[in-house]
Amino acid sequence: MKRKVYESEYDRRSDRRIGAVAFVVVNGLVWLLYQWLSQRAAANLQLSALPYSRLPIAIQLIPWVANGIVLALTLIFRPEIAIGYLGIFGGILLLGGMLAAVTVISCIVSIPVMFISPQLGLVIWIILLVVGVAFFGFKLVILLLSKL
What we know:
Order of helices and strands: HHHH
Mean pLDDT: 86
Low-confidence stretches: none
Structural class: mainly alpha
């Protein structure tokens, strides 16, 4: 196989979108496989022997190996798929950081208000969470759609 040569920006964006969908599909399938193997391993092994077995470690390595193989192959043959694959992963990390920041800020603002009026503090906390998540979520979606 040869490395794909992209002829237009449409081809590049198309492959980035394929990579974004591939990230969700690959990790969903790996998660299902991981859950199934974990249940089977726990059922077949005695609890006393489980910590000394290499099987749980091998099962825990499956997501790393699967993502590494997919990423390496896409980087070699179709690099724009790898960009979309990593872009969704970065977007998920940004989403988690954004949710954590919004939660911390809303707590910092609403806790002092709760000492004065508990109901008002709770209302302020909910409003800040909803507005913060909506605002930053909207910005994140726009950012991801413009890059993918």
